Amino acid sequence: MGLNRKFLLHLSSAALCAAVLLTGCNKTPVETTAAPTVTNAEGLIVYPIEADSYDETAVTTDLYMATENLDFSNFVFIGDSRTVGMGQHLHLTTIAEVGVGYSFLTQHYDEILELHDMNIVFNLGVNDLSHVDDYIEFYQRLPEEFTFDNHIYVVSVNPTSGPYSSMNGDIDYFNVQLSDSLPSTIKWIDTCSFLRDAGFGSPDGLHYNQQTYETIAELIYNDVMLYQSLGY
Q1: Residue 102: which H helix or E strand, with range?
Q2: Do the Cβ atoms of 15 and 44 come closer than 8 Å?
Q3: What are the 10-residue block averages of pLDDT along the chain, 232 residues in total?
């Protein structure tokens, strides 16, 4: 069921975002000289980010997400500086710090286990991609009562550009290894593939602009709702 479920979720997220594009978003995308206009297979205009382009003003498609209409009140996002940035932009509840990785999970293990009846979203790994085995072990040893008492999700490490573009190969390896090793009680959310296809805006090649953070949050929310509608 794993591969089919991930494929279904990817299609669902893409379809939902396409629906946003086709039903009246008024925010106009900003083109940059490093991002020529391309039409993808669905006929949507995208602005792919090239390896040497990492402009704060760069946007991808007209993917303005109405995140203010989404209810994140029962979500907790656990992660690194990318989670910090998304949390600040969208006023999310987070357990997150800049520059952290696997050891942050172990340091906050007891705090995490105190969470009850929540959608818990783990969103880290970019700072220590070589520790994928440690992440796998951490998720596999989470107590059953904790995983059944909450809805647990792990988000893919998302892509980089500019001076950090060389990390993308390691990011792909990390995502494949981790997604294939999660226990059935923990669900995988692949936002990386969508951002690779659609493009993304980044001020430094590693972090994202507000529009991209909103897109990531919308994709996560949609996948969580889909999982739960399917009974997971």
Answers
A1: helix 102-107
A2: no
A3: 41 41 32 31 33 40 57 97 96 97 98 98 98 98 97 98 97 98 97 97 96 97 96 88
- How far apart, in Å, are the Cα atoms of 205 and each of 51, 52, 162, 165? 9, 9, 5, 7
Q: In this predicted structure, what is the pLDDT of residue 232?
A: 85
Nearest Cα to 153, choosing from 181, 128, 122, 131?
122
User: pTM surpassing 0.70?
Assistant: yes
Long-range pairs for 10-17 at CB < 8 Å and ≥24 separation?
10/190, 10/193, 10/194, 12/222, 12/223, 12/226, 13/191, 13/194, 13/219, 13/222, 13/223, 14/42, 14/194, 14/197, 16/218, 16/222, 17/61, 17/63, 17/65, 17/194, 17/198, 17/215, 17/218, 17/219
Please tell me the CATH code under which domain 2-229 is placed.
Answer: 3.40.50.1110
Domain definitions of the chain by residue range: 2-229
CA 103, 109, 115, 118 dihedral sign is positive
| Range list of β-strands (E), 57-201 | 75-79, 94-96, 119-123, 151-155, 186-189
Residue 69 is predicted with a pLDDT of 82
